[in-house]
Amino acid sequence: MSAEIDLPRQVFGHGFVLNKGVKMSKSLGNVVDPMELADIYGVDQLRYFLIRDVPFGQDGSYSHEAIVNRTNADLANSFGNLAQRSLSQIFKNLDGVLPDLNENDTDRLLRAEVASAIDSYRRDFAALDLSGAVEAWLRGVFACNQYIDAEAPWALKKADPERMKAVLATLFVAIRDLAICISPVIPESANRLLDQMGIPESERNFASVEDGGWYVRHVKSGFRLGQPQGIFPRYVEPEASD
Fold this sequence. Notes:
Blueprint: E1 17-19, H1 34-41, H2 43-53, E2 60-62, H3 64-94, H4 105-126, H5 130-151, H6 153-159, H7 161-182, H8 187-196, H9 206-209, H10 214-220
Parallel strand pairs: 1-2
């Protein structure tokens, strides 16, 4: 005040991060170095767990099992597997060439579900409900996984190749939007995925998600998808040394 600097209009306070439900303290000997956790699980994976499982402003508990189960289930098995399956189908069956977006009602329904999930994500983030935002994002991921399982593009290669192309185009669009959406939470991983998809850095924001013409431009640019690389390896317990 003496320096005539404006006082803060809003103050944020976070809760305690508990080790298996117990406050960390030197006397208990349960203090953990967060840098060590990042080395073990990965920076993005640790960020994701803390944002997803510790509601902003409240106490939250972590454990080795909780981090592994959450990141393996949500990132490796759900989003990572979705991206790998979808992009691999484009690479293998279409030589990496992006197909035209010829949607039917099923495809449009998925697009609407993903858009709704992203809208909820943005509202929750604005309200500082970060864990709720990630949960909303997961609804979009789960919808895509249900869609790919139901449409089975791998089976359509011989039965109906044109339908296969439409399904893979729909998935490419949805994965791009979901990757942009979650990039504030897992920036390194999301950007590596968007790099593989050929999405320019200038088009990795919510204004780009709302751009209805981006996919047609991307197809016309001549971009060709290379062999996709897994983004979220599953955490595997290290073998015990003798």
